[in-house]
Write a structure and sequence with these properties.
Structural class: alpha/beta
Strand content: 5-15%
Largest sheet: 4 strands, parallel
Number of strands: 4
Length: 177
């Protein structure tokens, strides 16, 4: 909501630079991932798709993808909704992972890993997001776990599964000459 805060710049510029300088990393797209749970998952998908040249993988567990959509049932006067920009504006569209998923070149899409409990309040949002990916033939892995809601019972296991998936990929990158 505060453009002066520049949280996105912090992640894609400052944080990446700091991590690559302080730790032994694979300092390239193929060696970098972004992930989150709940609203952090929404942010990870947004930043990961928007800056797809920086991230080789995106993990999103229980993301509220509908929060940035222009759902007629939402109170668009709410403070949360106002942070995304007015309906129909370029500012709002650039803050919507589903819109980004429809515009990013398919060959540029990072590895996508999504997970959600089937009783999660955001399960429908995740299903609709996956439908958009499927319509564009964008590869992804989606896991819906039963009988779980919006909880660490889902996230603890799925974060580990995401790390396992990208670790295999990173082993391949390290093996390159």
């Amino acid at each position: 909501a505060d453009p002066a805060a520049k949280y996105e710049d912090f992640v894609v510029k400052d944080l990446i630079e700091f991590v690559d300088k302080q730790y032994r990393t694979i300092a390239s797209r193929d060696g970098r991932a972004i992930a989150g749970v709940s609203m952090g998952a929404w942010g990870a998908m947004l930043i990961g798709l928007k800056h797809h040249q920086l991230f080789g993988a995106i993990g999103a567990m229980s993301a509220p993808f509908g929060i940035s959509r222009q759902d007629p049932n939402m109170d668009m006067t709410s403070r949360t909704q106002q942070r995304f920009g007015a309906p129909g504006t370029p500012e709002r569209l650039e803050r919507d992972p589903a819109t980004l998923a429809t515009t990013i070149p398919i060959e540029s899409v990072p590895l996508l890993y999504l997970a959600c409990g089937n009783q999660d309040i955001f399960a429908g949002d995740n299903r609709r997001f996956v439908e958009r990916l499927t319509a564009r033939k964008i590869p992804y892995e989606y896991r819906e776990l039963s009988p779980f809601g919006h909880s660490w019972e889902v996230w603890d296991t799925q974060v580990v599964n995401f790390v396992d998936a990208i670790s295999t990929r990173w082993d391949q990158v390290r093996a390159r000459p």
